[in-house]
Amino acid sequence: MQLKIYNSLTGEKENFQPILEGNIGLYVCGPTVYSNVHLGNVRTFLSFDFIYRTLQFLGYKVRYVRNITDAGHLTDDGNIENDRFVRQSRLEKLEPMEIVQKYTVDFHEVLKKFNLLPPTIEPTATGHIVEQIELTKKLIEKGFAYESNGSVYFDVLEYNARGLNYGELSRRNIEELFANTRDLDGQGEKKNPQDFALWKKASPQHIMRWISPWGEGFPGWHLECTVMSTKYLGDRFDIHGGGMDLKFPHHECEIAQAKACNQVAPVNYWMHANMLTMNGQRMSKSTGNYILPMQLVTGENDFFEKPFHPSVLRFCFLQAHYRSVLDISNEAMLASEKGFSRLMEAVKILEDLQPSEQSTLHVENWVDKAYSALLDDFNSPVLISCLFEAVKWIFSLREGKERITLEDLTLLKEKFHAFVFDVLGLQRIEKTANHKLDDTLQLLIELRNQARKAKNWALSDEIRDRLMEKGIELKDGKDGTTYTIS
Ligand code: AMP
Ligand code: ZN
Question: Residue 316 domain-assigned?
Answer without folding.
Answer: yes
